[in-house]
Amino acid sequence: MSSAGLSPHHAGLLFLQGSWELMSEESDSLRTSPSAASLSESELPPPPAPAGYVCSLTEDLVAKAREELQEKPEWRLRDVQALRDMVRKECPNLSTSLEDAFLLRFLRARKFDYDRALQLLINYHSCRRSWPEVFNNLRPSALKEVLASGFLTVLPHTDPRGCHILCLRPDRWIPSNYPITENIRAIYLTLEKLIQSEETQVNGIVILADYKGVSLSKASHFGPFIAKKVIGILQDGFPIRIKAVHVVNEPRIFKGIFAIIKPFLKEKIANRFFLHGSDLNSLHSNLPRNILPKEYGGTAGELDITAWNAALLASEEDFVREFCQPGPPCDSILGQALPPEGLSSEAPCDDSMWAVKSQLYSCY
């Protein structure tokens, strides 16, 4: 029967049949697309990066991260997803950010070892909960007095390896004004700001500590209990790479301070301490003069704390969101995980003034 002789009903049926066959052929064609069928699972391209993460590393830093941190750009987001899955499976009650950029900090700090990165993440939150005097209400506006004192700042120039330089000057602290924990809060605040940069995550930081004028009475505030907590955080509870600690102008009393610190240092970190005394030439062999302020024999002008203070104060809202929001009363995973050694909030405070001064006097 010709199409001209079809009734409207039969013509409609033929049209629907033809449309179905065409759709079926297209569907079969899609299921057997040569581009998909010809690639084995191992040859498939890595998953595309989600719109939320954009790598800010230069080509040189990408190469450095590959060599030093075992970071492969083509699998970076796969590794982040693996860590995210581990958190969800093993630590379902851990109240933490799972954003790509945040988790990358922990992977880079542990050279993309998933298990060690997860433990570091757990330690990070455990440290924050175990020392509320330091981490509660941690924001720049609450530390204006410490920042104005010049106790710490970050120098405007990086070292030859690209490390930012955190400059500490304990002589600027007046103990009668506020407790030593306020200084520790300012240090942690600065580290949190620094680690937001992917450049810092790869390059790490250098610490320059100037102990000029530090007296016995001032040093006695930094006893074993405080030392264990601070070092425990820096070594095992924070995703940052400390590449060197340069100490200058240290008095004889520093031998006593270092005697308190050293038992808690891992060998790798202990070997990165350099004591220069008043020999600035020794310092310049590690940190060139053109990046140092004139206070340390440099040519980069006078030490200026205003720029870094302004950068911190401009980040007020970020810190309020991260550290000043009410959280759950207890994370079950943190109840099971022990904080790094020395960070237990129930540990007895054994740094009585007499005991600490006895240790410090022994260096004379």
Automatic annotation (TrEMBL):
It holds the Pfam family CRAL_TRIO. GO terms for cellular component: membrane. Gene3D superfamilies: Alpha-tocopherol transfer, CRAL-TRIO lipid binding domain, N-terminal domain of phosphatidylinositol transfer protein sec14p. GO terms for molecular function: phosphatidylinositol bisphosphate binding. PROSITE patterns: CRAL_TRIO. Residues 139-304 form the CRAL-TRIO domain. This is CRAL-TRIO domain-containing protein. It comes from Balaenoptera physalus.
